[in-house]
Design goal:
Blueprint (H helix, E strand, L loop, with lengths): L5 E6 L9 H15 L3 E8 L18 E5 L10 H12 L3 E5 L5 H6 L5 E5 L18 H8 L14 H12 L10 H8 L7 H11 L2 E4 L2 H6 L7 E3 L25 E4 L10 H13 L5 E4 L11 E3 L8 H7 L2 E4 L9 H8 L4 E4 L4 H4 L6 E4 L4 H13 L1 H16 L3 H9 L8 H9 L1
Parallel strand pairs: 1-2, 1-4, 2-3, 4-5, 5-6, 6-7, 8-9, 8-11, 9-10, 11-12, 12-13
Helix pairs in contact: 1-15, 9-13, 11-14
């Protein structure tokens, strides 16, 4: 292998600008590896139809990308992986990183014999397919109201495949029919993930992988059979892009404080119904503030909530800086919680449900507050504290910024990725030479 490793990244849904944290993550990791001497190329299918922006770029990303044109009909297990494999083998990398490949991942890894394959798992879709079909039905809110301390199913496809397959089929329902398919149900069918042999395909995939990167300890526990390969890798943030108004000196904004719920609010798992109820009760109790969300399809179902519409990624720092606090009332175990980290980098404390990666990211009472999922009263109290107590807000704001700096992309790349590809941290060496 050459001293300058060649790293191919396969991502089935990469687009730019990004609409979610995983695409931000893989792009910044790629850039960090390029800055340290690696040669990077991303391989993405370009599909003009369908709900996901596969391989579509409204802005040019800052990493090299090769797109493989295909139709929605050719996006299936017996065609799409072969086209990507052909392009990757032509480039002849030393490593292949598999990112955002969902239920297609086993088929892609199967075609990559002879390569060191590193699998990056951001969510739980390979471990529980129903996570990717919850959002059209909102079932997670039912679970949360009946079992607020663990608003997730305790089963796993790895341990009970038949039960999980039937659950997925029942949950997707008509979405499995060609006329009604969404991107996730289409991919589930196109990858044959409902077939009995699929679990064995998945097991062989994990066996073949050189490393398996996951976002939190919850995912690690499900993959304990491959513990020697599993590495917990958190997300990161660009702390030079996401900054407070005044570096190292956060200031309390003037005017009515803004309480913000950012991200894909239209996804029921994100807990908008909790946010709406909290806003209503705080307003009825006389608290002065503005409530903002970023839902582009908001139907105005609350007189107290305003929608900014979808905010481009390049404008997100300005939105965070305007906020007094952000609320992350997610009702499912968020793998990491990027909006919380971006908010903290801007010096904005977070009020979040203590679930998934958020439990490990937000430091309760130091960078914001963690509350039991479904406990609306606690969220009300914590939001009211941050809106009305300036000194407390300033302390949490400074702590939030310091916490975010630990997750700067440079630190994440140095701490978790360089050893994977046998790279040296030349940026550290440069800093030492200048000291």
């Amino acid at each position: 292998m050459s001293k300058r490793p060649r790293i191919a990244i396969i991502d089935l849904s990469f687009h730019w600008p990004p609409r979610g944290g995983s695409w931000v993550d893989i792009a910044y990791i790629a850039r960090g590896l390029m800055e340290r001497g690696a040669e990077i190329r991303m391989f993405v299918p370009r599909v003009e139809t369908g709900g996901l922006k596969r391989g579509r770029f409204d802005e040019r990303p800052f990493i090299p990308v090769t797109t493989c044109d295909m139709s929605l009909k050719s996006f299936h297990a017996f065609c799409m992986p072969g086209r990507l494999e052909k392009a990757v083998r032509k480039w002849n990398p030393d490593y292949v990183v598999i990112s955002n490949t969902f239920s297609m991942a086993p088929w892609i890894v199967r075609r990559l014999s002879g390569f060191r394959v590193i699998l990056r798992i951001y969510g739980y879709e390979m471990l529980c397919p129903y996570y990717m079909s919850l959002w059209p039905h909102g079932r997670i809110e039912h679970w949360a109201s009946s079992n607020p301390e663990a608003a997730i199913c305790t089963s796993s496809y790895m341990r009970s495949p038949n039960r999980c397959t039937m659950c997925t089929i029942r949950g997707m329902g008509k979405d499995l029919l060609p006329r009604w398919m969404n991107p996730f149900s289409h991919e589930y069918v196109a990858s044959l993930a409902f077939m009995p042999f699929y679990r064995n395909l998945l097991l062989r995939m994990f066996d073949r992988c050189h490393r398996i990167l996951v976002s939190n300890s919850y995912t690690s526990s499900i993959l304990d059979q491959w513990a020697s390969k599993v590495v917990e890798v958190p997300g990161g943030v660009d702390t030079e892009f996401f900054t407070p108004d005044i570096q190292d000196k956060p200031s309390v904004a003037t005017g009515d404080p803004i309480v913000l719920m950012p991200g894909r609010v239209e996804d029921p798992r994100k807990g908008y119904s909790v946010f709406r109820d909290v806003v209503h009760r705080l307003k009825e109790n006389g608290l002065r503030f503005r409530a903002l969300i970023t839902d582009p399809r908001y139907d105005g179902n609350s007189p107290y909530i305003e929608s900014t519409g979808w905010i481009p990624y390049s404008e997100m720092p300005n939105l965070y800086r305007r906020a007094r606090t952000i609320v992350v009332p997610t009702m499912w175990p968020e793998p990491f919680g990027l909006v919380a980290l971006e908010s903290m980098a801007c010096g904005v404390p977070v009020v979040a449900h203590a679930i998934g990666g958020l439990s490990e990211l937000v430091l309760d009472g130091k960078t914001g507050f963690l509350v039991t999922p479904g406990d609306r009263k606690s969220i009300e109290n914590k939001v009211a504290e941050l809106v009305t107590h300036d000194n407390q807000w300033l302390t949490l704001s400074r702590n939030a910024r310091r916490r975010a700096e630990e997750f700067d992309w440079s630190n994440i790349v140095s701490r978790y990725y360089l050893s994977l590809f046998h790279l040296e941290d030349n940026q550290t060496n440069e800093r030492e030479d200048c000291s």
